[in-house]
Specification:
The protein contains 17 helices and no strands. It is mainly α and 440 residues long. Among the domains are: 41 residues, no CATH class; 122 residues, no CATH class; 69 residues, no CATH class.
Length: 440
């Protein structure tokens, strides 16, 4: 059983009071301490070593390139070719040393992986420049991404995986579909690149030994997905479907597998999914949002990826519902992608229905209001201040959005904001007073 330092610290802090009130005996308290052992202390030395090793590898590689570049124009072509391969040769020697000598230190592995990936990228760029091979940034990054996959798994490198994911941003923005028609090949290649690092990411999630790497790698992955998915499905109304389904799937996966005992920043899949889904909810609460749904069926092959995610989303959701692991708030969030898909299909199939001009708009306004009210009620019922405040924020944002969407005067809008702020302060004051009475 994995040890939770935060939970153990709380438990050990409660034991003296439980003994004093004779709820448990000193012998029982001693057995509890003996069973759980010492509170684990997080050793950050490995992380610090890994960071500075990677930094050192980058500086060494950059220094070699700068020294070579100093007299680059006067160097013969054959010498230039040799020098282009020099960083790659050095990185190969270092990688061989790390592997053959069984260096298990994360610092060694991360440094070798990053140096290998960057030296390969530098070598390709230099050879291309020496022989005037031409090409573009998108093709260059495609080769670099392909070459980076192997070192990620050979060295189990999360730093190189993060660099790999960040490189997908310029790769996507420089793809041929950016200023033309969307390309099915770009879409498939993009998701293949994402899938290539998924096993490494999942190993960080399920292996407690690497739990310190998981949060920051998860946030890098989530941010890259938010930025790039919309560019892959360039100018298609399918964007609302892919974002809703993908992040609905990530939300349910986060609920099932992430550790909720720590702060929300340590569960990037679930937290990022909630933020994206809430943004979509508010966007869909505007009537204008639904007036421009007009999907061109010649792009029907782009439905393949959303279809795969939708099947996976339904499968995991059905299993969670069957196991009764969802409360009403979580069930509502899961229902959101289903509602988006339903309205999207209805608008495309029945564009002449007048009711569809206002039904989605009304539904999502009511949906957000219900979500906020239920969150407030759950906070009061469970005595959780965070839940209550989240509900207040959800309702307040809905009211604010609707007021900015209206033609009311500034005085009326200001009065509503004052009312919302006062109501929030009073609710928190009442809640804290209630908690003090319960503890007394």
């Amino acid at each position: 059983m994995g040890k939770n330092a935060r939970g153990m610290k709380w438990l050990y802090g409660e034991l003296p009071e439980l003994e004093a009130k004779e709820i448990i005996t000193p012998e029982a308290a001693s057995k509890i301490r003996g069973y759980y052992g010492e509170i684990p202390v997080k050793d950050t030395r490995a992380l610090v070593l890994a960071i500075f090793s990677v930094l050192g590898a980058i500086l060494v590689g950059s220094g070699i390139i700068l020294i070579i570049a100093h007299n680059w124009d006067g160097i013969p072509r054959n010498i230039k070719t040799l020098l282009a391969f020099l960083p790659l040769i050095i990185s190969t020697v270092i990688s061989g040393y790390v592997l053959l000598n069984g260096k298990e230190s994360p610092a060694w592995k991360e440094a070798a992986a990053v140096f290998s990936g960057l030296s390969a990228a530098a070598c390709i760029a230099l050879i291309s420049q020496i022989y005037n091979m031409g090409g573009n940034l998108h093709d260059y990054l495609t080769i670099c991404l392909l070459l980076a996959i192997l070192p990620i798994y050979v060295f189990n490198s999360s730093v190189l995986a993060a660099i790999y994911l960040l490189a997908l941003i310029p790769w996507t923005f420089n793809a041929p579909n950016l200023y033309g028609h969307p390309d099915i090949t770009i879409m498939i290649t993009y998701f293949a690149f994402i899938a290539a690092t998924t096993p490494h990411f999942l190993s960080m999630l399920f292996n407690k030994e690497f739990s310190f790497r998981y949060p920051w790698l998860g946030w890098v992955r989530s941010i890259v997905l938010v930025i790039t998915i919309g560019m892959v499905f360039n100018h298609l109304d399918i964007n609302i479907i892919i974002y809703s389904i993908c992040f609905g799937f990530f939300y349910i996966v986060g609920l099932r597998f992430e550790d909720f005992s720590g702060p929300f920043l340590k569960r990037p899949i679930n937290t990022s999914a909630i933020l994206v889904l809430m943004f979509l909810m508010y966007a869909m609460s505007f009537q204008d949002f639904w007036d421009h749904i007009d999907f061109d069926m010649k792009y029907k092959y782009f439905l393949i990826i959303p279809g795969i995610f939708f099947i996976a989303f339904l499968s995991v959701s059905a299993k969670m519902i069957k196991e009764k692991k969802l409360d009403i708030i979580q069930s509502m969030v899961i229902s959101f992608p289903l509602a988006v898909v339903l309205f999207w299909i209805l608008i495309l199939c029945f564009p002449s229905w007048d009711i569809l001009e206002s039904l989605p708009y009304l539904y999502f306004n009511i949906f957000i209001a219900a979500l906020g009210i239920l969150s407030i009620l759950r906070g009061f019922r469970r005595g959780v201040l965070l839940d209550m405040n989240v509900g207040i924020v959800v309702l307040s944002m809905l009211i604010i959005v609707r007021f900015f969407d209206s033609h009311l005067s500034f005085v009326a809008k200001g009065s509503v904001f004052i009312f919302l702020g006062t109501a929030s302060l009073m609710a928190n004051w009442y809640f804290c007073k209630r908690l003090k009475k319960e503890k007394a």
